[in-house]
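Case 261 in the screening queue. Each case pairs one protein sequence with one candidate compound; here the compound is farnesyl diphosphate. For every case the pipeline is the same: read the inputs, emit a complex structure as tokens, and attach any notable structural observations.

Predict complex for case 261.
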Amino acid sequence: MPEAAASPKIPEAATSPKTPDAGFEPPRHVAIIMDGNGRWAAERGLPRTEGHRRGVDALRRTVRAAGEMGIKILTIFTFSSENWSRPPAEIRDLMGLLRRFIRNDLVELHENNVRVRIIGERGGLDPEIQRLLEEAEELTRGNGGLLLVVAFNYGGRQEIARAAQRVAELVALGKLRASDITADIIGRHLDAPDLPDPDLIIRTSGEQRLSNFLMWQSAYSELVFVPTYWPDFERATLERAIAEYRRRERRFGGLVARTGS
Ligand code: FPP
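Case 261 output:
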């Protein structure tokens, strides 16, 4: 069977929500590039910080909506490996927002049975941030509701390079032959290898590119680009993106359409 057609494993954490909307089958895994905070702020004559702050409000709304709609996994791009090239003040703002998001929202996420996982490079991050990320994962480890995957200090190519390093170590140790390396083996050494690939990737703000997000996992994802700036993202925007996804035919390289849900 071709690799991409293999049925991906559903993580244990992704059990049914308590109250899914009746008659509505959402995609299992939705990933979002939350773009347009800066432009949202600029259009209002506000500082970029305010755009990011309102972006966190949109994130809260979206996590709630995703859980209510029965989405099992929501992956969000919060800080890319390339975002370090922004001005230091903006980087400080974004780090501060992450700290506050974990400190203020973690208890509520936990109460709502959300499990948090982090993907991205943790080495080199501020030790306090590393500790908060670990705490978020640790506290929510046993939760079986929505799985919230936070891509932080994340780049898709960097993730593939990390996987290649792990596989190279196995070869160096004599546990694997170079000629036995397959796409499946690389996939099993990514940051969250047990998760199924995203069915749907949404990017807000009208930009139409992936910007190094989930480069490996997006091979067969449906891409939906919405013109809305991230701070204005509502449940209705998510529903419209999912409606568009449902109109697509997913063939995974074959001839027969297999709709995602
Ligand atoms: C893109 O807007 C967004 C980001 C760089 C980061 C996304 C961050 C948030 C939604 C808030 C932070 C949340 C956490 C949990 C850290 P942009 O600044 O690139 O917008 P622009 O393209 O209009 O300038």
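Case 261 observations:
- The pocket of farnesyl diphosphate is lined by residues 34-39, 52, 55-56, 59, 78-79, 83, 94, 97-98, 101, 205, 230 (CB under 6 Å).
- Helices lie at 37-43, 48-69, 88-111, 127-140, 156-172, 183-187, 235-247.
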